[in-house]
Design brief:
Length: 235
């Protein structure tokens, strides 16, 4: 939150200076003070250009270093989806029961979820509207909604702020259940999600857990907390 307020204050300050210089330039030109008017125009360019740069630039998404954080692709195969669910939330009987029901009859399960009183109502609406005629994709994409509702995974923008990252991670079930340490003081606030997850893994692996990315081919990071070392044969 502190970083966001600092960034907003800086932007407002630049806008104020640019507007002030623009107003001064107009007044000076009206009065025939051409030199002062030119200085006003230069001031507009100086303070206004940083505001325009984001409009004409598209910063590249930072690449994930392959060995920085474990990563798996979101499968579509039913058995592979079950294996992933067990790895991410196998110790949560309620969630696993919902996962099993969604695997057996995804159409009925997610249609009922659309009308249920659930926290992630928008997510279920989107998944049903988009994939209701594709059972395989409905199972895979719907599983993410089930795991999100169970606080087993969290999604972050690739340019996430560290305070929001911490706020979301502390809500995850395994973080709370096993008292996994996390705070902004443990992270480099100037870094990014992969480096924050790597820093957490250095702490959490000693406690039997680590973060893991689930790749769904979007710009966001989908983060789960899984046992460490991983069990190659989850039940």
């Amino acid at each position: 939150m502190k970083e966001k307020l600092t960034s907003l204050f800086g932007t407002l300050l630049l806008v104020a200076f640019a507007v002030g210089c623009g107003w001064m330039a107009v007044e000076m030109f009206r009065q025939g003070a051409w030199v002062k008017g030119i200085f006003g125009v230069l001031g507009v360019l100086l303070f206004g250009s940083p505001l325009l740069i984001p409009l004409f630039s598209s910063p590249a998404k930072p690449e994930i270093v392959p060995r920085l954080v474990p990563q798996v692709d979101l499968p579509e195969d039913k058995e592979a989806l079950l294996a992933l669910a067990r790895r991410v939330a196998g110790d949560d009987e309620t969630t696993m029961q919902a996962v099993m029901e969604s695997m057996e009859n995804p159409e009925d399960f997610y249609l009922a979820r659309v009308y249920a009183d659930v926290e992630d109502r928008y997510g279920y609406d989107y998944v049903w509207d988009t994939y209701h005629d594709n059972p395989e994709a409905l199972r895979a994409q719907g599983l993410l909604c089930v795991l999100t509702e169970a606080k087993a995974i969290a999604m972050f923008d690739w340019k996430e702020f560290s305070d929001n990252f911490v706020d979301e991670m502390v809500e995850l079930r395994r973080v709370q259940l096993h008292h996994l340490p996390i705070s902004e003081g443990l992270l480099d606030t100037a870094a990014d999600v992969p480096h924050w997850c790597y820093a957490l893994n250095e702490l959490w692996q000693l406690l039997g857990y680590e973060t893991m990315f689930i790749d769904i081919n979007v710009d966001e990071y989908l983060v789960a907390v899984v046992p460490y070392p991983p069990n190659p044969y989850p039940r």
